[in-house]
Design goal:
Chain lengths: ~300, ~1050
């Protein structure tokens, strides 16, 4: 991975990604390939071209200036991704902002400057900055530097991670500057994990166990989180497997992320197909009953689960 | 207007007089609607002329003549109708002209000595002329719904020259003949809106109907952390709900379900007095001293108005003979605007009134004929010979002068009466007269008038005491009889003697509030820092209580008393004509009350009363009083702010929250006022700072549309919609006169200076009108300095003086300037003439440019430094002009950015903006950033917090609509709100007001108003019940950015 990551977005005012009012820095690129990924534009570490059909007025500005002629009304998805060279000339001229670039290089300084504006809001609310993605740990040096700069500003730091990283490098470069980690554990069974997320969860589980030991020593705050994807991660057996693992690890508090099918729209902007082929189940929102069932199941294992 | 008194009616009709199109909550009546309903009918039935000539303008002229002739004949032939032309003081006479600017239509209605005649030429001495821009507009008006008709008036297709009140008289006569068809048209309009609302709400959740109950089910408990809180173990008073106070619950329900009643008591008394004693001169022909005239009349009113006690109430005295909900209807201000609607106001779609036939007759025959030429707008035009500034006001596109309504955006020192009693004030006056051997005539008269006025107040209190005793004697319920006896005892003492108990203090305050409203206009005024005023009485009372249970009982009583005061304040309504519902729709009379802030020496002012008042605010959820909180980080506790936020969450809209330090620094800037006095500030009107009993702030004197001079700068001095070549020639875009952006900024500045100069001239003229006709001796006695100087407050008697300006359209102007700078000058993506053409075409055919503006131009509120600098440039330029002007009392002008509902009303008269806003669309409320500025609420909060306080010294209204997350508990939601507000204020934020409501709830409420009788929302400065607001305003509130708290 190159030393300079691409930043997808900085969400200035988030109440969902850790305690208090937070700014969230989204990194582009992820070692996993979860089928349900809620931020599909964050999977690839490369810049991508987004097209929002709803915003587009078909004014034709981009068609006229696209040198490789990748954009045409006659294309099924408007942009022919094979032909597109990602020059982004169209983005600069698009009057509506329907064409957009996903992923921009930003320096540590630039990021710090942008979020430090909100420092007073962080302080009064017990908030801070969250690194998310994508997977920020793909750029250990960079995020280490960023986190150190944030700590220097007295800002609370939190990392949202998929857990797939080298523990040694993480411990050396990143951990010293972190206050809190939200650690995703999607599935316990390594084979299922590989099937749905592209790789085995061996490293992830090992990393969690190691960090959990540090957390129980009070060195860091660690919260495991599980996305509830209908039919994939929320089945009875999957939940029991998680419950047993957490009990074993003496984890008493976990986070749950309810399925949010809005990501399916994001796929369209990227010109990608729905990996579930339009299956209805995956399009559902979690209802109160569904949530209650899962909370009760975890309670049987002595675990307080919180939807976040 | 009487054959016997023609001197006042001679009006120079060559000019625009009086108003139309003029706005405010109030303004004109059903206006031109009725005659044309008839006209339509008569042309259909073919009463006039052959089909051939109805096609041409000659035909239309004949049709018009025929319709008018038909009405005239009915009156001339029927003794019953003819009787309506006879008032108590003689025949009611008027000449009303109708014409079009193109000269194709001209008719006059001459009502004289009991006969109506129609003429083809409008006589020189017409009282009023209705002017259609083109002959076609006569036809359009014919085919329009009532609301479309109003919009034609507001957008300048129809205007009025002369005295608008006469149109009301003519409308009244018309309604007697065609009232039925008008009612049908209203019903049709209601049905259309109902259907549209159902479509809008299709698929919306109905959860909002349970929301209030949910929000009150988990009240937070407070802790005793504020040093000034001495007696409340749980300052949040979490164990009480409205259900704990059956008396308040009952009185509130009665009020919420009531329709305001038009009453004639005040009108009749004031008319009786002047018919008997003379207005311009006394009966003996000698001149009145203005102060003595006002005071003598007030004394008569107070002595003769009915002393009423609302059934079961703890406080005696009412604004009107309807103790639950009525209108006073001062005929010298707004009252007379209702003339044309006396018979139709019951059937309006919005804000209907009830009215008895007796009231209608008194107003029509006795009151309105006397005042038709004696009202503020009329005096302004007559005494200053229809100045340009009044003509600008009349067209309602650039400025509205609040002094045509009232001069009440002040905070009189009611506390003086509580502390000294009227007896103490009388003694002060006597001492002053004794000690000042050189007192001039004005001083002697002013001080004598103060005492006469006070005698009137004392008489009213005596009458109320007697009434309480009479009711007690007749009362069968022993407990109530005891209450009434106690009330009589209190009224024996206050307001003449100093108050000793909380009950005495509140009763005295209430009587003074009524009295000041009777003396002037019942529009406000502010009650100021109620927690500071009342705390000593609370402490004195509670010291008498022995034991916890006695204290508990007393605290309950104190809450009930405060609740009674709130409901008393909420018992009157402006006598708004129907067209007013398109303007400041749903606005009450805004009596402001503030809690919190700092003491004279800068210490923490939060006390027991602060929390008691917040509890009452939370339980009653009223649109008036207009509630405010001052918060100074580091001085006031976070627990106090948290409670304010909880009340905001529960009520959804009130109180609004002020950054205390920022307001204090803004008020202090460039003034030599004592800092101790400034620390005592209170909001008045909507949000504007005023120093109770010390400063006369008249904070909403000028209500300016900043987009009007901007449009004039774009059009070389001409206002496009009004087609009025008004301003200086500052350069033509089409001729390429602006070679750089600064040139255009300079043109805008020059147009502003032109308009602002007119506003200052007009305000100072109106000040003179108030000095002569509304000198307010009683209210003046409540301001420091007036007694000593022997000058009323309108004559600059108070210690400090200023006049306030509120401007609408900051965000639109800043975003427009940014669009011009970026796209035309910096990036050269479009030429200025092209952009101008696109705006003139309402962006039709310029969709690409329109999209570019929306996606590429950084707006105010986006966190972009250049946009923020631009905003500070605009507020600085505006303040720089006004700060250096002197008002008629010797004070400076202050500038603020809150809009009531002018953002919708002025938006209606503005063409498409360079900001991308389309023709007629509303601006954003107050100085709230545009919803498209940023999806990040923090950018909004930070940009607003970084405006230079001294350039916004008349305060701001910053609206934030937030929606709590369903995942959060009550406590978490309140905590999150507190976090935002605390930081915003620490960063220098001056003011913020919330609407805590989601879009589904608002839409559901539009479709099912019956399920939301008291859904409170902040408009911009004032609060209104959402289902009672005009549809355009409802939609504007829905369009506001909705920030989720998740």
């Amino acid at each position: 991975m190159s030393a300079q990551p691409l930043i997808l977005d900085i969400k200035g005012n988030s109440l969902d990604d850790g305690p208090g009012i937070r700014s969230v820095v989204f990194f582009k690129g992820c070692p996993l390939n979860c089928r349900w990924c809620q931020n599909p534009e964050s999977k690839s570490p490369k810049a991508e071209l987004l097209w929002d059909a709803g915003k587009c007025t078909r004014c034709g500005t981009c068609i006229d200036l696209c040198h490789p002629a990748a954009i045409a009304d006659s294309n099924t998805a408007f942009i022919d991704r094979e032909k597109c060279t990602l020059c982004f000339a169209c983005v600069d001229e698009c009057p509506t902002g329907a064409l957009a670039r996903a992923g921009r290089p930003m320096s540590v300084d630039e990021i710090v400057r942008q979020v430090v504006r909100y420092r007073d809001f962080f302080e009064s609310s017990g908030g801070g900055v969250t690194l998310s993605g994508g997977e920020p740990t793909l750029w250990m040096e960079f995020i280490g530097e960023l986190l150190r700069a944030l700590k220097k500003e007295g800002i609370h730091t939190l990392l949202e991670t998929c857990g797939q990283f080298s523990l040694d490098r993480f411990s050396a470069l990143v951990l010293p500057w972190l206050d809190e980690i939200y650690f995703d554990i999607k599935l316990i069974d390594p084979l299922e994990h590989e099937r749905h997320c592209g790789i085995s969860n061996r490293v992830i589980i090992d990393n969690f166990v190691a960090l959990n030991t540090l957390a129980s020593g009070g060195r860091i705050t660690l919260l495991p989180r599980t996305p509830l994807i209908p039919g994939i991660t929320d089945g009875e057996e999957r939940i029991r497997a998680l419950g047993e693992f957490y009990r074993e690890q003496r984890v008493t508090r976990i986070g749950l992320l309810a399925n949010n099918p809005i990501w399916l729209d994001k796929l369209k902007k990227l010109g990608r197909d729905d990996p579930f082929g339009g299956a209805d189940k995956i399009r559902g929102f979690y209802d109160g009953e569904g949530k209650k069932r899962i909370l009760e199941r975890f309670r049987e294992y002595g675990i307080t689960a919180v939807f976040g | 207007m009487y054959t016997t008194r023609t001197e006042i009616t001679r009006s120079p009709i060559r000019d625009y007089l009086a108003l139309i199109g003029s706005m405010s909550k109030f303004v004109i009546g059903t206006a031109m609607y009725t005659p044309f309903t008839l006209l339509k009918r008569s042309s259909r039935t073919g009463t006039n002329g052959s089909p051939a000539n109805t096609r041409g303008h000659l035909g239309r002229q004949l049709t018009l003549r025929g319709a008018l002739g038909f009405i005239a004949n009915r009156f001339n032939a029927s003794p019953r109708l003819r009787d309506q032309l006879m008032g108590t003081q003689g025949w009611i006479n008027a000449i009303i002209g109708l014409r079009s600017d193109d000269g194709l239509v001209e008719q006059a209605i001459i009502i004289r000595d009991g006969r109506i005649t129609i003429a083809d030429r409008i006589p020189e001495n017409a009282n009023v002329i209705v002017i259609f821009r083109e002959e076609e507009d006569v036809l359009k008006q014919l085919q329009s719904s009532p609301e479309e008709g109003y919009k034609m008036i507001l957008r300048g297709r129809i205007r009025v020259e002369g005295n608008m009140m006469y149109m009301g008289f003519w409308d009244y006569l018309n309604n007697l003949i065609v009232g039925g068809s008008q009612k049908k048209a209203v019903l049709k309009q209601i049905e259309q809106h109902r259907k549209a609302n159902q479509t809008l709400a299709c698929g919306c959740s109905a959860n909002g109907r349970q929301e209030r109950r949910q929000r009150t089910s988990n009240l937070l408990r407070g802790e005793k952390v504020d040093p000034g809180v001495k007696h409340l173990a749980d300052p949040y008073l979490s164990t009480y709900t409205l259900g704990s106070f059956p008396r308040l619950e009952r009185m509130r329900a009665e009020r919420i379900n009531a329709t305001p009643e038009i009453t004639a008591e005040y009108g009749k008394l004031v008319t009786d007095f002047f018919v008997e004693n003379g207005y311009e001169t006394k009966r003996d022909g000698s001149l009145w001293d203005p102060n003595i005239r006002t005071a003598t009349c007030l004394k008569y009113i107070m002595e003769n108005r009915k002393p009423l006690i609302r059934t079961g109430d703890l406080l005696a005295g009412t604004y009107t003979p309807n103790p639950v909900f009525g209108t006073v209807g001062h005929p010298n201000s707004l009252g007379t605007f209702l003339w044309g609607e006396l018979n139709t106001c019951r059937h309006r779609e919005l804000e209907p009134f009830t009215i008895t036939p007796e009231t209608a007759e008194i107003l029509h025959k006795h009151v309105f004929p006397f005042w038709v030429d004696r009202n503020i707008t009329r005096w302004w035009n007559v005494e200053f010979d229809t100045p340009l500034t009044a003509r600008i006001h009349d067209r309602f596109f650039a400025v509205f002068f609040w002094k045509t309504t009232s001069n009440m955006e002040n905070s009189p020192g009611f506390e003086r009466v509580l502390k000294k009693g009227l007896a103490g004030l009388r003694a002060e006056i006597d001492r002053e007269l004794r000690e000042d051997a050189n007192a001039d005539e004005e001083k002697r008269n002013t001080l004598a008038a103060m005492k006469i006025a006070m005698d009137g107040v004392s008489a009213y209190a005596r009458n109320l005491a007697q009434r309480a005793r009479d009711e007690a004697a007749a009362e069968t319920d022993a407990a109530r009889a005891q209450e009434l006896e106690a009330m009589a005892g209190i009224l024996d003492r206050v307001p003449d003697q100093p108050a000793r108990t909380l009950h005495e203090a509140i009763q005295a305050l209430w009587i003074m509030h009524i009295s000041v409203g009777m003396e002037n206009i019942d529009d406000g005024p502010s009650l100021g820092r109620l927690d500071q005023i009342l705390q000593p009485y609370f402490e004195a009372d509670i010291a008498q209580c022995s034991g916890d249970s006695a204290k508990e009982t007393y605290i309950r009583n104190a809450i009930e008393l405060l609740g009674s005061l709130f409901l008393r304040i909420n018992s009157h309504w402006p006598q708004t004509p129907d067209i007013g519902t398109l303007l400041n729709s749903g606005s009450p009379l805004n009596t402001t009350i503030v809690v919190g802030g700092v003491t004279e020496d800068g210490g923490d002012a939060v006390n027991d009363l602060s929390y008691l008042i917040l509890k009452v605010t939370e339980m009653l959820v009223l649109n008036d009083p207009n509630m405010h909180a001052r918060y100074q980080p580091g001085v006031n506790s976070r627990a106090f702010l948290r409670r304010v936020c909880e009340v905001d969450y529960i009520t959804g809209a009130t109180p609004c929250i002020h950054g205390d330090e920022t307001v204090i620094s803004a008020v202090s800037a460039g003034k030599d006022w004592r800092i101790e006095d400034i620390r005592g500030w209170t909001p008045t009107g909507c949000v504007e700072p005023s120093l109770p009993g010390k400063s006369v702030s008249a904070t909403s004197s000028l209500e300016v549309n900043l987009v009007a001079p901007f449009e004039m700068a774009l059009n070389n001095g001409t206002h496009p919609l009004m087609q009025w070549d008004l301003g200086p020639k500052t350069g033509s875009i089409e001729n390429g006169d602006f070679s750089n952006f600064e040139d255009f900024q300079n043109a805008f500045t020059k147009q502003c200076e032109f308009l602002f100069e007119q506003t200052v001239i007009g305000n100072n003229q109106l000040g003179a009108v108030h000095q002569h006709h509304l000198p307010a001796p009683l209210m003046s006695s409540l301001f420091d300095g007036c007694i000593e100087k022997g000058r009323g407050y309108t004559r600059g008697g108070a210690t400090y003086n200023s006049s306030g300006v509120s401007l609408t359209g900051l965000t639109d102007v800043v975003d427009s300037l940014m669009a011009i700078k970026k796209l035309v000058y910096d990036e050269k993506r479009v030429t200025f003439p092209e952009l101008k053409k696109a705006m003139d075409s309402n962006f039709v055919g310029y969709e690409k440019l329109h999209a570019m503006i929306k996606s590429r131009v950084p707006r105010f509120g986006s966190g972009n430094q250049e946009a923020l600098d631009m905003a500070n440039w605009v507020t600085g330029m505006v303040n720089g002009y006004y700060r250096n002007q002197k008002n008629y009392r010797g004070g400076a002008y202050t500038t603020g950015w809150w809009s009531m509902n002018y953002h919708t009303a002025y938006g209606r008269v503005a063409g498409a903006s360079a900001s991308g806003r389309l023709d007629g669309e509303p601006f954003t409320p107050g100085l709230t950033p545009h919803p498209a500025a940023s999806t990040n609420m923090l950018d909004n909060l930070l940009d607003v917090a970084q405006l230079d306080p001294k350039t916004i010294d008349n305060n701001i209204a910053f609206n934030v609509r937030i929606v709590p997350s369903s995942k959060d508990t009550h406590e978490q939601t309140v905590e999150r709100m507190t976090n935002y507000v605390e930081t915003f204020i620490k960063k220098g934020g001056m003011q913020v007001q919330f609407n805590v409501v989601d879009t589904d709830t608002l839409k559901d409420a539009m479709a099912h108003p019956e399920a939301y009788p008291d859904l409170l929302v902040r408009v911009s400065g004032y609060c209104g019940y959402f289902t009672k607001l005009h549809r355009d305003l409802q939609l504007e509130i829905i369009r506001r950015c909705e920030y989720g708290l998740d």
